[in-house]
Amino acid sequence: MFTYYLNLGMHSLSRNVVITGLMIMLIAVGVAGSITTYALLNVLSANPLPSRSQQLFVPQIDNRGPNRITTGGEPDPELAFRDVIALRANDEATGRAAIYPIYLASIPADITIQPFAAKGYAVSADFFRMFLVPFQYGGAWSRADDDDGSNAVVIGRDLNQKLFRGENSVGRELPLEGHVYRIAGVMEQWNPLPRFYAAADVQGFDLAPQIFLPFQRAIDLKIPTAGSTYCALNYQGRGWDDLVRSECTWISYWVELSDAAAVRRYAAFLSAYAEEQNANGRFSWPAYTRLRDLEQWLKYLKIVPSEARISFFVALGLLLVCTVNTIGLLLARFMRRGPDIGIRRALGASRGAIYRQYLVEAAVIGLAGGLLGALLTVSFIGNLNLVFEEKIARTVHSDAGTMALAICLAVVVAIIAAAYPVWRASRIQPAWQLKAG
Amino acid sequence: MNIPVRPILSALTRHKAGVFLIALQVALTLAIVANAVFVIGQRVIYISRPTGIDEANIVVVDNRWVGALTSVQAQAKTAADLAMLRQLPGVVDAYADYSFPGAGPWATLWAISLDANQKSPTSYSEAYFADEHALATYGVRLVAGRNFQADEVTPGSQLEQSTAGPIIITQDLAGKLFPAESSLGKAVYVGGVARTIVGVISDMQVPAVGTRTFAYRSVLSPIRWADAGGDQYIVRAKPGQAEQLRIRLSTALYNVSRLRVIDAVDGVQSFHALRSKAYSRDRGLVILLTTASIILLLATAGGIIGITVFWVDERRRQIGLRRALGAKRSDILAHILTENFFIILLGISVGSLLAFAVNIALMHFLEMTRLPTVYIALGSALLLTLGQCAALSPARRAARMSPMEATRAAI
Hints:
Chain A is an alpha+beta fold. Chain A has helices at 2-13, 17-45, 81-88, 126-130, 143-147, 157-164, 215-220, 239-245, 260-279, 294-301, 306-336, 338-346, 351-382, 390-393, 400-426, 430-436; strands at 56-61, 95-106, 116-123, 135-138, 152-155, 173-176, 179-187, 211-214, 252-256, 289-293. The radius of gyration of chain A is 31 Å and the shape is elongated. By secondary structure, chain B is an alpha+beta fold. In chain B, the strands form two sheets. Chain B has a six-stranded mixed barrel.
């Protein structure tokens, strides 16, 4: 029976090509727009490290008081160097990572390779373990290396490809800004986007970072941050020494806390620390601190561009209008066939049979819309760079999953749209239709 | 022609589902399109705001030094580069800075006060660190006062820069600080330090693209910028020679010193390219909303045509009967079009409320103001016209029906 309905459906589609084509196209466009923007929103708002949500925390300390102007009543997202030093000394946290973006130039020993500049971060050893950085060769430097002025460096897969043709380069040397470093590890391709781990660089939906230096080593060499520095508007300091003593914030700081009790203890420590700063005259306002976990941190940073949300809502609006449109067109289509239905009912077809026949017809339209919609989705995703920045567009890919989703959504939309028209069709009175005929 | 409104309206109550569907579609379309056009208008104005500089002829080099330079070495190497650039055929002038107008990589926020102990500043602004060549490089006009003199300009970098010395401000900032009098020679306070205004220039945009409320309140501070990391060279070409210059700059600079990195892809860019990149998100949104609006309007038109065709078919016999009883073709045409008019009117009245609701929701996400009623009025007029056009072809088909239809069977 189903194949019979299918045949009937296919036949009736070919009877009214323009209206059918319109319905199919509208469903396709609505579905493709929704799926594309949904995929984009999904990528942009995804938690890059879901398994670490419960362990990673960002402490924030208000070191500006009433002079806060930029961060909407919240403490700065980053810390001043002096606070980083103080927090690193606390060993309540099982992992502690100070992070700031760097941008370094190098003249490779191999003269066939052009001088180049690469972006990366100065980080503590714990960084790699806390953020689950995968290694191709070697590994992170040790915690001891953090403080002994080690010349270790971790490089990215791309840089290793460029300098050492992808070979195991652990132990080899890398000159950077006039100093020679020894390669401790080569990362696998690692580029969680957005750069939630470094607030100074959070808009960097960019190429994978390639150079990681020990935090203390970078500080000793006075390597300046390649990200933003937030100073008080009346900041008059000059030079590196003033900067590291100042209230300017420029370092991201993360801690790893193993359980709820540790979180409570750390939060208490944090407020006590701020109170202490109040007592010793550094702050002249009540202690104000925050301890956000990874999930809350992502929300707080608002890293999803508002354009992505807007386009998702516009696409949903489009899908809604297309659905209403399809209801109207299907209604017109089914009611026009009132006489057919009357005859079928008079010849013994049950209401259920009419239901099934027309639902199958709607599903066929939905399927056609879905197939076209899947193709459109691929083309939309491929051309996202026309609407969104290249670095954002690059993060979204179409795969079998998105295509299947597009087809399913189209069939569901068509069946929902058909519900009322089909109900109307099944209410048609056989006798009345025959008489009118 | 006398249009019988009452029978048309009572006839509509017999087609509740169809009327409801068209009206709903019109309402949704109006709500989305009115807001979309509003956002598009705002973004287009935003994208097309001028920087106030000689945009067409400016080329920017992102130069990065290799090796840990001292600040003295960085000053010497930057000075050598600038001397070469200013000698280069086709170059009007050049200077080094940490950023540039309207699309810069960085911005330095300054709070400017008229009094040293003022609680909240008179105006915010963003700073340029400029030498005596900056005005000629940007091609901005000196409205009053003078340019910096070479001996006023002190060496500076990201970490070390003088916070004293004279400043040059834009007309917009001068108007904000001293609305009634000339600002020349007056002292203002930046971070508690008194700075004397020696010059006023034509309006020039601040570095950060996202700045809206003080976009033209730039300040020039006399710093000879040379950072040990590297800097932006802003180079102004003679009219029409920017593109040739852009291609040659990298080689010319490498000939001065090879110990540098200028990215092969985006190390040297025309100001136009940089600006276009800075506004890419806004431009993208404009493209997206325009496309979605057009699709919505087409979809709505298609829906109206589909349902009107169905109604005309359904009422063939009634139309034939009216014709047989003396109704003219124009009466039939008027009937269908009037019917359409009232349905769209219903949609518009619901849609106007919906449009305000969407606007309130949008204000949550975008920097948006209240939707002016004119957009709803324009959208309504557009949808009424669209509705009439969509209904025209089925209406004419109805009008052409012969009175004989009344006697024919329905099938």
